[in-house]
Give the backbone structure.
Amino acid sequence: MPSAAPELRPKVGGDTEKITINLGYVDLGHIDLLVQDGFYSNRTDFIRTAIRNQIERHADTTKQSVARKNLDLGLRHYSREDLEAARDAGQMLHIRVLGLASIATDVTPNLARAAIASISVLGALQASAAVKAALADRIR
């Protein structure tokens, strides 16, 4: 009977973030043994699988928290036009994302400050250094 494998997603440039972790030698040795015995293709495969298993284990709690905190889940891109429309309507955006929030490269620091009241991202925020600096007091 075949085992259930995690769903594989095609890799698209920019859909991952590099992190660094420190592991004890014994834990690292256990991972290497599992790789050597063919359970995983490499250390990264093991770590990704472990992370996905923990996320799945806590899926119900996460769903409740996402709903309670009113977070956009996944990828949320803000274009210059989006921010101009909010500014022109006299509305300030409260950006709340679990995943990746990106602000277009043609957004100026002044436009960002005029249109964005706050940013809370669990995951990664992609924006120019100038926009991030302009919004530094609004990023949580």
Summary: The CA atoms of residues 4 and 53 lie 12 Å apart. The first strand starts at residue 72 and ends at 78. The beta strands are 72-78, 93-103, 116-126. Helices lie at 25-36, 43-57, 59-68, 80-88, 109-115, 129-134.
